[in-house]
Each structure stands twice: as C-alpha cells, then as structure tokens.
Amino acid sequence: MPKPTFCYDYPRPAVTTDICLFTVVDDELRILLINRGAEPFKGLWALPGGFLQETETLDECAARELLEVTGVKSAHLEAFATFSDPHRDPRGRTITAAYLALVPAGDHILQSGSDAEDARWHPVRRLPKLSFDHRDIITAGRQALIAKLDQEPLAIALLPPGFSLTQIQKVYEAVEGQPLDKRNFRRSILAKGWIVETGEFERGRQRPAMLYTHQPSGQAREGQG
Amino acid sequence: MPKPTFCYDYPRPAVTTDICLFTVVDDELRILLINRGAEPFKGLWALPGGFLQETETLDECAARELLEVTGVKSAHLEAFATFSDPHRDPRGRTITAAYLALVPAGDHILQSGSDAEDARWHPVRRLPKLSFDHRDIITAGRQALIAKLDQEPLAIALLPPGFSLTQIQKVYEAVEGQPLDKRNFRRSILAKGWIVETGEFERGRQRPAMLYTHQPSGQAREGQG
DNA sequence: GGCTTAAGTGTTAACTACACACTTAGAGAA
DNA sequence: TTCTCTAAGTGTGTAGTTAACACTTAAGCC
Question: Which residues does residue B68 pair with via DSSP β-bridges, in sequence order?
C-alpha cells in the first residue's frame, strides 16, 4: 500500500457520491429523498450521499453511504454520470459521482435511517423542492434507468424474489410511463432468459399467477418454443 | 460567484481528466499516447490529461487539456467512466474522469504538442507498455466507442468534412473490427439521416465517389424511397 | 353455483435485417 | 482510341422480429 510521496500543487475539490435510489410502489416510480436538517438548503430535499473516504473507491463509497442512510444493500448499484459545476455547492468546490440504485418496494428502509433526518419516497413525477443540482441528477438518473431497462435485468432488482409476470410488467410500465401489451410483453421478457419459474403460485382473490425469480447464474435457457 | 464559506473536514483527492483520443488511419483504429518524461512510469506511455482547475467543469478541463496537448478542438468529447482505485496513482490519491475524444486522421496534431514529450498514434490492437491504470481506461474507452457508434453519428467526427461512403464504412469496420456488407451498410447509414450529399465528387484513379458531409442541424430527412 | 377478477394463451400482418453479384465511370497505359 | 484496372454504385428475395389484437380459465367470495 504505497504512501503519497509527492504532494500535488493543484486545487483539490471535495468528492462525493449521490445516489438515486428508486423503487416502484403502487405502480409508480419513486425515489428516496432526505429532508436536509442543516444549511445550506435546510428544509429542502436532497439525494442521499456523502464524501469519498481515503481508502475506498467511488463504488465502495456509494455502497457504504447507501447502507448507512437506508440500511439496505441495493440489489443494483452503478454510476451513471459525474457533476462538476464549480458552483454546484455554495460551501465550496465539490464534484459528485451520481449512482443509480434499485430496491424492491417494502424493504423497510426508512426506519433504519441513521441520521435523525426525514427520509421519504417521492413519486418522480411530483418532486418537491430540491437542493443543489439534485433535480438535474434525478433527471439524468431516470433517463439512465429507462435506457438500461431493456439491456440488463434491472427490473428484477425492483422486485421481491417471487414475482408474477404482471408485477414485472407493471414495473416496466411505471418506469417507461406507458402501458404495454400483455402477450407481447410476456413473450419478450421470457425470451431474454433473465427469469425462471419458481413452481410457486401467488395467493390472491383470483386465478393464481405463476411466480418467477431471477435466473441464478445469468445462464439463459434457449429454444423453448 | 459564491466563495467557500465552510471548509470540509474530509480528505480531498486530486481530480484529473484522461482522454482517449481516437482516430482512424490506414483503416486502423489508433489512440494518441504520450511518452512520459518524468517519474513515476518514466518512459512508459500514458493518456493525455491533467488536473481539474478551480473554475472549470470536468468537461471544460478535458477540452482544455486536449487543446493544450494536441492543439485541436475535438469534434466530439464526452465522459464515459470514472476511475477511483485508491492506489491507481503511486504519488497519492487521484481520481480521474475518462473522456472519449475523436478527430479525423491527418489533422496535424503531433506537431503542436505543447510539452517536449513524445506523442504518437498507437494502433489499439498493439498497445505499448502503459502507465497507471491506463490500459483499463483504454479498454473501457474502446467499448464505449463501439457501443455508441450505432446510436450517434460519432463516425463523422473521425472523418474530414467531405468523405465517401466507402470511407465511412471503413471507419465502422476499423472500430468494430469486422467487415461489413457494402449495400446493407449504405442503406442503413443513409437511413439514419446523419449525412447528406455535398454534390462534390472524390478525385481518384477510378470511378469518382459522391462525397458526403454531416447533416448540419441534426434534422433528418425521411421517406427517400 | 354464479359472479368477479386477473391469469394465461396464438395467429396474422408489417417491418426490419441479412445475404448476395453485376454494371458503370473514370484513370492511365498501350 | 481502345483496353484494362479499380472502386463506385445499385435491387431483390428471404428469414427473423416486432406489433396488433380477444377469448378462455382458475380461483375467491358471496
């Protein structure tokens, strides 16, 4: 573990990670925001996040902050952009790496918040007044989520282990903001090989739905027609 | 322009940008590397780049460094990843934002290098010994380039203003590393609406090729069949 | 057992992607 | 001037994919 042997003569910004933690509740995409208890922007809402420590990567920083603030390990966590406007933080030069994180609805996150601050799920279509440039970050985060939803099995990270095809369809509809055809959706989601039948059925007040879970090793089965 | 009113109690890493500047020469994808004149990694090759200044964004920093080192304004410059391993720079904690930049072949870049250092175009398939984690950055940069080539008109940034369809096809073949069918390529590239005929023809030793240039306002014409 | 609710299931038509070979225009040499 | 060489330019048929569309089935509940 090499120690610094040379001190740079350059201005060093503070470096943070900010996390867009999304979930889907009531067929609606929501994001976790924290009500700031201190200046600047006291009383406004902000993304969870915090400062990069000396011995961690940005990925590790984001995972740590998420765990500290929400008490959960996200099923999915990835960087999507960096924000570096010199005046984005009135306290001084700060750049931030923005992360996309996803959790299933109902993981009891809000109780375990470490700070006394108020954390809430906000529908992304009706955001409150936000601090810093966090509105821009959220806009970029939503776009990143939409863009990746068809490439990678992100929707699974927004669902509990056993879910029906109707549930996963509703996740897609909530994120993309438009209704999808049931039969076409089922055919295409199964063709991706991301999910497998559990053999279990959903208990409900109507015909039981087959439950699915994520394909364990990413090893898709083919030729099921 | 607010001044810092509060000093953070957090370790501040140095922040840099590193630039993967690509071009296509002799039907081959090449990247600009600089031979390091100083320790650490003296004599090895590195990406052009440098430190973030107080009053600039990361995008501005990358554009400035590129201009300083190569003397050109890139037709295309965009961030694609951040590298933050605590030990990636033996001199001390440094994180870097990696940028993808593209210039046409033959822009006389190397002459105008500001430093006395040696700058050269290296074929990406035969890279020399590299310093820091620059090999990883280049690998990620190539993947970013390939992924975006079909979404955005990046190939145009690798070509001079007047180019033939054969030239642009060779750019695609060089980046993707595989031959493409001439008729299918022409149909699909024209369908994207990124390029328009100039009315000029290429002077050569055979049948003259129609020259194209980028569609000025990104306004695609449709229904040309 | 009858009503309510959501699950589950196939076919056709339109479009897109892919494979494939010959003719043409100009340059330069004989 | 004609012949040769080189790369430009051009169309069709087929396979695969995507998009639109409605009824039957199974369980819960009264």
Answer: none
Judged against a pLDDT cut of 90, whether residue A11 lies above it is answered with no
Q: What is the DSSP string of B140-167?
A: HHHHHHHHHHTTS-HHHHTS-SSB-HHH
Find chain A residues with C-beta within 8 A of B92's C-beta.
Answer: 4-8
* Strand D contacted by B165 CB (< 7 A): yes
A38 reaches B (C-beta below 8 A) = no
Chain B interface, mutation test: which of A1, A3, A9, A57, most B Cβ atoms within 10 Å? A57
**B14 CB within 8 Å of a chain A CB:** yes
Does the pTM surpass 0.85? The reply is: yes
Find the CATH number of the domain harbouring A95: 3.90.79.10
The strand ranges marked E within A38-177 are 45-46, 49-51, 76-83, 94-102, 118-123
**Do A144 and A163 fall within a single domain?**
no
Give residue A8's pLDDT band: very low, low, confident or very high (50, 70, 90): low
**What φ, ψ does residue A130 adopt, rounded to 5°?**
-115, 155
Q: Would you say residue B52 has pLDDT above 60?
A: yes
Choosing from B100, B120, B149, the residue where a domain stops is: B149
- pLDDT tens track for A101-150: 999 998 666 654 445 468 899 999 999 999 999 999 999 999 999 999 99
Do the Cβ atoms of A46 and A134 come closer than 8 Å? Answer: yes
B7 within some domain: no
pLDDT score at B117: 65
CA distance A95 to A154: 27
- Give pLDDT tens digits for B141-199: 999 999 999 999 999 999 999 999 999 999 999 999 999 999 999 999 999 999 999 99
